[in-house]
Protein backbone atom coordinates (compact mmCIF):
# COMPACT_ATOMS: atom_id res chain seq x y z
CA UNK A 1 0.00 0.00 0.00
CA UNK A 2 1.26 3.46 -0.90
CA UNK A 3 1.57 5.78 2.09
CA UNK A 4 0.57 9.46 2.16
CA UNK A 5 1.93 11.62 5.01
CA UNK A 6 -1.08 13.66 6.17
CA UNK A 7 -0.19 16.90 7.97
CA UNK A 8 -3.00 16.28 10.51
CA UNK A 9 -3.10 12.50 10.88
CA UNK A 10 0.39 11.34 9.98
CA UNK A 11 1.26 8.53 7.55
CA UNK A 12 -1.83 6.74 6.25
CA UNK A 13 -2.85 4.37 3.47
CA UNK A 14 -3.37 6.26 0.22
CA UNK A 15 -6.86 4.69 -0.01
CA UNK A 16 -7.97 7.08 2.75
CA UNK A 17 -7.30 10.08 0.49
CA UNK A 18 -8.82 11.71 -2.56
CA UNK A 19 -6.87 13.91 -4.97
CA UNK A 20 -8.61 17.05 -6.20
CA UNK A 21 -6.19 18.25 -8.85
CA UNK A 22 -3.54 20.88 -9.10
CA UNK A 23 -3.36 24.01 -6.98
CA UNK A 24 -3.94 26.98 -9.29
CA UNK A 25 -4.26 30.61 -8.26
CA UNK A 26 -7.70 32.06 -8.82
CA UNK A 27 -7.91 34.80 -11.49
CA UNK A 28 -8.55 38.31 -10.20
CA UNK A 29 -12.36 38.16 -9.76
CA UNK A 30 -13.05 41.80 -10.64
CA UNK A 31 -11.16 41.80 -13.92
CA UNK A 32 -11.12 38.21 -15.22
CA UNK A 33 -13.10 37.55 -18.41
CA UNK A 34 -15.01 34.36 -19.26
CA UNK A 35 -12.02 32.85 -21.05
CA UNK A 36 -9.82 33.28 -17.98
CA UNK A 37 -12.48 31.65 -15.75
CA UNK A 38 -12.96 28.77 -18.21
CA UNK A 39 -9.21 28.25 -18.25
CA UNK A 40 -9.10 28.24 -14.45
CA UNK A 41 -12.11 25.98 -13.89
CA UNK A 42 -11.89 23.47 -16.73
CA UNK A 43 -8.30 23.13 -17.90
CA UNK A 44 -5.48 21.29 -16.16
CA UNK A 45 -1.80 21.84 -16.95
CA UNK A 46 -1.06 18.11 -16.68
CA UNK A 47 2.59 18.88 -15.93
CA UNK A 48 5.13 16.07 -16.13
CA UNK A 49 7.29 16.79 -13.08
CA UNK A 50 6.76 18.30 -9.66
CA UNK A 51 3.25 19.66 -9.13
CA UNK A 52 1.27 21.05 -6.19
CA UNK A 53 -2.05 19.26 -5.68
CA UNK A 54 -5.09 19.48 -3.43
CA UNK A 55 -5.62 16.31 -1.39
CA UNK A 56 -8.30 15.46 1.13
CA UNK A 57 -8.07 12.95 4.01
CA UNK A 58 -11.63 11.66 3.70
CA UNK A 59 -12.22 10.30 7.25
CA UNK A 60 -11.48 13.76 8.69
CA UNK A 61 -12.46 15.89 5.65
CA UNK A 62 -9.06 17.52 6.07
CA UNK A 63 -7.80 19.37 2.97
CA UNK A 64 -4.12 19.99 2.46
CA UNK A 65 -1.51 20.50 -0.27
CA UNK A 66 0.91 17.88 -1.50
CA UNK A 67 3.93 18.32 -3.74
CA UNK A 68 4.18 15.28 -5.95
CA UNK A 69 6.38 14.26 -8.86
CA UNK A 70 3.95 13.06 -11.52
CA UNK A 71 6.71 11.21 -13.40
CA UNK A 72 8.00 9.09 -10.52
CA UNK A 73 4.81 9.36 -8.40
CA UNK A 74 6.89 10.36 -5.38
CA UNK A 75 5.25 12.49 -2.70
CA UNK A 76 7.86 15.09 -1.84
CA UNK A 77 6.13 17.19 0.81
CA UNK A 78 2.69 17.76 2.32
CA UNK A 79 1.56 20.79 4.30
CA UNK A 80 -1.59 22.57 5.54
CA UNK A 81 -3.28 24.84 2.99
CA UNK A 82 -2.91 27.70 5.47
CA UNK A 83 0.78 27.80 4.52
CA UNK A 84 -0.24 29.14 1.10
CA UNK A 85 -3.69 30.61 1.69
CA UNK A 86 -3.26 32.72 4.78
CA UNK A 87 -5.27 35.80 3.83
CA UNK A 88 -8.98 36.33 3.43
CA UNK A 89 -10.06 37.05 -0.18
CA UNK A 90 -12.68 39.79 -0.44
CA UNK A 91 -15.01 39.75 -3.42
CA UNK A 92 -15.75 43.42 -3.99
CA UNK A 93 -18.77 43.93 -6.30
CA UNK A 94 -18.07 45.51 -9.67
CA UNK A 95 -19.16 49.12 -10.03
CA UNK A 96 -22.87 49.39 -10.81
CA UNK A 97 -23.63 45.72 -10.12
CA UNK A 98 -23.87 45.88 -6.33
CA UNK B 1 -37.93 -12.13 28.48
CA UNK B 2 -40.31 -11.12 31.28
CA UNK B 3 -43.09 -8.74 30.36
CA UNK B 4 -42.50 -5.26 31.65
CA UNK B 5 -38.72 -5.44 31.19
CA UNK B 6 -37.40 -2.23 29.53
CA UNK B 7 -37.31 -2.55 25.75
CA UNK B 8 -35.59 -0.35 23.14
CA UNK B 9 -38.97 0.19 21.48
CA UNK B 10 -40.29 1.82 24.70
CA UNK B 11 -38.36 4.94 23.65
CA UNK B 12 -38.46 7.14 20.57
CA UNK B 13 -34.69 7.25 20.69
CA UNK B 14 -33.12 3.85 20.02
CA UNK B 15 -29.64 2.54 19.53
CA UNK B 16 -28.73 2.15 15.85
CA UNK B 17 -28.06 -1.53 16.51
CA UNK B 18 -31.00 -2.32 18.82
CA UNK B 19 -32.20 -5.15 16.56
CA UNK B 20 -28.74 -6.75 16.69
CA UNK B 21 -28.71 -6.35 20.48
CA UNK B 22 -32.15 -7.96 20.78
CA UNK B 23 -31.14 -10.92 18.64
CA UNK B 24 -27.99 -11.34 20.79
CA UNK B 25 -30.31 -11.70 23.81
CA UNK B 26 -29.73 -8.31 25.45
CA UNK B 27 -31.47 -7.18 28.64
CA UNK B 28 -31.93 -3.43 28.78
CA UNK B 29 -32.05 -0.55 31.23
CA UNK B 30 -33.34 2.97 30.59
CA UNK B 31 -30.60 5.60 30.25
CA UNK B 32 -30.93 9.18 28.98
CA UNK B 33 -34.24 8.62 27.17
CA UNK B 34 -33.16 5.39 25.46
CA UNK B 35 -32.61 1.78 26.40
CA UNK B 36 -29.03 0.60 26.73
CA UNK B 37 -27.97 -3.05 26.91
CA UNK B 38 -27.22 -3.96 30.56
CA UNK B 39 -26.15 -7.54 29.96
CA UNK B 40 -26.73 -10.43 27.60
CA UNK B 41 -27.90 -13.01 30.13
CA UNK B 42 -24.54 -13.92 31.69
CA UNK B 43 -23.15 -10.90 33.60
CA UNK B 44 -20.26 -12.82 35.20
CA UNK B 45 -19.22 -14.35 31.87
CA UNK B 46 -19.34 -10.92 30.24
CA UNK B 47 -17.07 -9.44 32.90
CA UNK B 48 -14.53 -12.12 31.99
CA UNK B 49 -15.12 -11.52 28.26
CA UNK B 50 -14.61 -7.78 28.76
CA UNK B 51 -11.07 -8.46 29.97
CA UNK B 52 -10.36 -10.65 26.95
CA UNK B 53 -12.35 -9.02 24.14
CA UNK B 54 -15.70 -7.32 24.55
CA UNK B 55 -17.86 -5.13 22.34
CA UNK B 56 -20.31 -2.74 23.99
CA UNK B 57 -22.82 -0.47 22.31
CA UNK B 58 -22.75 2.95 23.98
CA UNK B 59 -24.77 4.69 21.26
CA UNK B 60 -27.59 5.78 23.64
CA UNK B 61 -25.14 7.77 25.81
CA UNK B 62 -24.68 11.53 25.47
CA UNK B 63 -22.03 13.08 23.24
CA UNK B 64 -21.58 16.39 21.45
CA UNK B 65 -18.99 18.12 19.30
CA UNK B 66 -17.84 21.71 18.82
CA UNK B 67 -16.11 23.05 15.78
CA UNK B 68 -14.80 26.27 14.25
CA UNK B 69 -12.60 29.21 15.21
CA UNK B 70 -12.51 29.84 18.95
CA UNK B 71 -13.73 26.34 19.91
CA UNK B 72 -10.76 25.38 22.10
CA UNK B 73 -10.73 28.77 23.86
CA UNK B 74 -14.48 28.69 24.53
CA UNK B 75 -14.32 25.13 25.89
CA UNK B 76 -11.42 26.07 28.15
CA UNK B 77 -13.63 28.88 29.55
CA UNK B 78 -16.27 26.23 30.32
CA UNK B 79 -13.66 24.42 32.45
CA UNK B 80 -13.03 21.66 29.92
CA UNK B 81 -9.46 20.37 29.81
CA UNK B 82 -8.76 20.61 26.08
CA UNK B 83 -5.80 18.59 24.77
CA UNK B 84 -3.06 20.86 23.39
CA UNK B 85 -2.51 18.75 20.25
CA UNK B 86 -4.84 17.38 17.58
CA UNK B 87 -5.66 13.66 17.77
CA UNK B 88 -5.31 13.60 21.56
CA UNK B 89 -8.00 12.92 24.17
CA UNK B 90 -8.14 13.85 27.85
CA UNK B 91 -10.41 12.41 30.57
CA UNK B 92 -12.30 15.11 32.49
CA UNK B 93 -12.91 15.20 36.25
CA UNK B 94 -16.45 13.88 35.83
CA UNK B 95 -15.38 10.93 33.67
CA UNK B 96 -16.28 12.51 30.31
CA UNK B 97 -13.69 12.50 27.53
CA UNK B 98 -12.64 15.51 25.45
CA UNK B 99 -11.15 14.42 22.12
CA UNK B 100 -9.43 17.02 19.94
CA UNK B 101 -10.04 15.91 16.35
CA UNK B 102 -8.45 18.98 14.70
CA UNK B 103 -7.06 22.36 15.81
CA UNK B 104 -10.64 23.69 15.70
CA UNK B 105 -12.71 20.60 16.51
CA UNK B 106 -13.40 18.85 19.82
CA UNK B 107 -15.63 15.85 20.49
CA UNK B 108 -17.07 15.34 23.99
CA UNK B 109 -18.04 11.81 25.04
CA UNK B 110 -20.21 11.62 28.17
CA UNK B 111 -19.15 9.58 31.20
CA UNK B 112 -20.11 5.90 31.59
CA UNK B 113 -23.18 6.08 33.89
CA UNK B 114 -22.39 4.42 37.21
CA UNK B 115 -18.66 4.47 36.44
CA UNK B 116 -16.20 5.35 39.20
CA UNK B 117 -15.56 8.88 37.89
CA UNK B 118 -19.11 9.70 36.85
CA UNK B 119 -20.09 12.77 38.84
CA UNK B 120 -23.06 15.08 38.67
CA UNK B 121 -21.52 17.03 35.82
CA UNK B 122 -23.31 15.90 32.65
CA UNK B 123 -20.72 17.54 30.42
CA UNK B 124 -22.36 17.19 26.96
CA UNK B 125 -25.66 18.61 28.27
CA UNK B 126 -23.95 21.38 30.26
CA UNK B 127 -21.89 22.49 27.25
CA UNK B 128 -24.85 22.43 24.86
CA UNK B 129 -26.85 24.58 27.30
CA UNK B 130 -23.93 26.98 27.89
CA UNK B 131 -23.42 27.42 24.15
CA UNK B 132 -27.13 28.14 23.57
CA UNK B 133 -27.15 30.69 26.41
CA UNK B 134 -24.20 32.77 25.20
CA UNK B 135 -25.05 36.16 23.67
CA UNK B 136 -25.52 36.55 19.90
CA UNK B 137 -23.36 37.75 18.27
CA UNK B 138 -20.66 36.40 20.59
CA UNK B 139 -18.05 38.82 21.91
CA UNK B 140 -15.31 36.39 20.90
CA UNK B 141 -15.47 33.48 18.41
CA UNK B 142 -16.74 30.34 20.14
CA UNK B 143 -17.27 27.84 17.30
CA UNK B 144 -20.55 26.02 16.71
CA UNK B 145 -22.07 22.83 18.14
CA UNK B 146 -21.94 19.65 16.07
CA UNK B 147 -24.61 17.14 17.18
CA UNK B 148 -22.97 13.73 17.33
CA UNK B 149 -25.65 11.60 18.99
CA UNK B 150 -27.50 10.95 15.72
CA UNK B 151 -24.66 11.04 13.22
CA UNK B 152 -22.32 8.57 14.90
CA UNK B 153 -22.76 5.17 16.48
CA UNK B 154 -20.59 4.73 19.58
CA UNK B 155 -19.04 1.36 20.37
CA UNK B 156 -16.49 0.45 23.04
CA UNK B 157 -14.02 -2.38 22.46
CA UNK B 158 -12.32 -3.70 25.56
CA UNK B 159 -9.75 -6.25 26.56
CA UNK B 160 -6.31 -7.66 25.96
CA UNK B 161 -7.15 -9.00 22.49
CA UNK B 162 -8.77 -5.81 21.18
CA UNK B 163 -5.57 -4.54 19.45
CA UNK B 164 -5.21 -7.88 17.63
CA UNK B 165 -8.85 -7.72 16.55
CA UNK B 166 -8.38 -4.15 15.26
CA UNK B 167 -5.43 -5.30 13.16
CA UNK B 168 -7.93 -7.24 11.05
CA UNK B 169 -10.15 -4.27 10.22
CA UNK B 170 -7.93 -1.19 10.50
CA UNK B 171 -4.66 -0.18 8.79
CA UNK B 172 -3.38 1.95 11.68
CA UNK B 173 -1.19 0.21 14.27
CA UNK B 174 -3.28 0.36 17.45
CA UNK B 175 -1.08 -1.91 19.56
CA UNK B 176 -0.56 -0.47 23.07
CA UNK B 177 3.16 0.17 22.51
CA UNK B 178 2.50 2.18 19.32
CA UNK B 179 -0.78 3.86 20.22
CA UNK B 180 -0.58 5.39 23.70
CA UNK B 181 -3.59 6.04 25.97
CA UNK B 182 -5.37 9.18 24.80
CA UNK B 183 -4.28 8.75 21.17
CA UNK B 184 -6.86 9.21 18.43
CA UNK B 185 -6.86 7.70 14.94
CA UNK B 186 -9.34 9.03 12.42
CA UNK B 187 -9.13 6.40 9.77
CA UNK B 188 -10.82 3.61 7.87
CA UNK B 189 -12.29 0.78 9.97
CA UNK B 190 -13.82 -2.13 8.08
CA UNK B 191 -13.85 0.28 5.12
CA UNK B 192 -15.93 2.82 7.02
CA UNK B 193 -14.63 6.22 8.05
CA UNK B 194 -14.39 6.26 11.80
CA UNK B 195 -12.68 7.61 14.89
CA UNK B 196 -10.78 5.36 17.30
CA UNK B 197 -9.86 6.74 20.74
CA UNK B 198 -7.76 4.71 23.17
CA UNK B 199 -9.23 5.07 26.66
CA UNK B 200 -8.02 2.20 28.83
CA UNK B 201 -10.41 0.66 31.32
CA UNK B 202 -9.17 -1.19 34.37
CA UNK B 203 -5.54 -1.32 33.13
CA UNK B 204 -6.64 -3.09 29.95
CA UNK B 205 -6.63 -1.57 26.50
CA UNK B 206 -10.02 -0.17 25.49
CA UNK B 207 -11.00 1.81 22.43
CA UNK B 208 -13.97 4.02 21.69
CA UNK B 209 -15.07 3.60 18.10
CA UNK B 210 -17.33 6.16 16.45
CA UNK B 211 -18.58 5.73 12.91
CA UNK B 212 -21.47 6.63 10.64
CA UNK B 213 -24.75 5.71 12.35
CA UNK B 214 -26.42 4.64 9.09
CA UNK B 215 -23.81 1.87 8.71
CA UNK B 216 -23.84 0.87 12.38
CA UNK B 217 -25.48 -2.52 11.85
CA UNK B 218 -22.91 -3.36 9.17
CA UNK B 219 -20.04 -2.33 11.45
CA UNK B 220 -21.50 -4.29 14.39
CA UNK B 221 -21.61 -7.39 12.17
CA UNK B 222 -18.04 -6.84 10.93
CA UNK B 223 -16.73 -6.47 14.47
CA UNK B 224 -18.64 -9.50 15.78
CA UNK B 225 -17.17 -11.49 12.89
CA UNK B 226 -13.62 -10.22 13.49
CA UNK B 227 -13.97 -11.03 17.22
CA UNK B 228 -14.98 -14.64 16.72
CA UNK B 229 -11.46 -16.09 16.50
CA UNK B 230 -10.53 -14.46 19.83
CA UNK B 231 -13.66 -15.67 21.60
CA UNK B 232 -14.91 -12.08 21.89
CA UNK B 233 -18.46 -11.38 22.98
CA UNK B 234 -20.93 -8.51 23.17
CA UNK B 235 -20.95 -7.03 26.66
CA UNK B 236 -23.48 -4.85 28.45
CA UNK B 237 -23.13 -1.72 30.54
CA UNK B 238 -22.81 -3.85 33.68
CA UNK B 239 -19.55 -5.43 32.45
CA UNK B 240 -18.26 -2.03 31.25
CA UNK B 241 -18.98 -0.56 34.68
CA UNK B 242 -17.19 -3.46 36.38
CA UNK B 243 -14.19 -2.85 34.13
CA UNK B 244 -14.19 0.93 34.68
CA UNK B 245 -14.45 0.48 38.45
CA UNK B 246 -11.74 -2.20 38.71
CA UNK B 247 -8.18 -1.03 39.20
- In helices, the fraction of residues of chain A equals under 10%
CATH superfamily of the domain at 3-26 and 48-83 in chain A: Folate-binding superfamily
Estimate percent helicity of chain B.
25-40%
Q: How large a portion of the residues of chain A is in β-strands, by DSSP E?
A: 35-45%
Spans where pLDDT lies below 50 across 5 or more residues of chain B: none
Structural class of chain A: mainly beta
Give the C-level CATH assignment of the largest domain in chain B.
Answer: Alpha Beta
Shape of chain B: globular
Biggest interface, chains and residues, is: A-B, 12 and 13 residues
Query: Which fold name is given in CATH as the topology of the largest domain in chain B?
Result: Gyrase A, domain 2
CATH 2nd-level architecture of the domain at 3-26 and 48-83 in chain A: 2-Layer Sandwich
Number of distinct helices of chain B: 7
Q: Ranges of chain A with pLDDT <50 over ≥5 residues?
A: none
> Which shape of chain A, going by the Cα principal axes?
globular
Q: By helix and strand content of chain B, what is the structural category? A: alpha+beta
Oligomer: heterodimer
Q: What does the main sheet of chain B amount to?
A: 6 strands, mixed
Under CATH, the homologous superfamily of the largest domain in chain B reads Probable tRNA modification gtpase trme, domain 1
Q: What's the β-strand tally of chain B?
A: 13
Order of helices and strands of chain B: HEEHEEHEEEHEEHEEEHEH
Amino acid sequence: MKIMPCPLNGPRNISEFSCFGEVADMPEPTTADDAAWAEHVWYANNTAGVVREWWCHVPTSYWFIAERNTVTDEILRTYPASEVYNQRVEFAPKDGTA
Amino acid sequence: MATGAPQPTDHLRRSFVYRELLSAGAHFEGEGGAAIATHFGDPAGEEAAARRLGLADLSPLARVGFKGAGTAEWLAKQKVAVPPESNQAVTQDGGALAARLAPGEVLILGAIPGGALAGEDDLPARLAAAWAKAPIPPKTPRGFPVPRADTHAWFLLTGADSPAMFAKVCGVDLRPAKFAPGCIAQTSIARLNGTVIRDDKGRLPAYHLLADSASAAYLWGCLRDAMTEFGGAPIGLQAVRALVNST
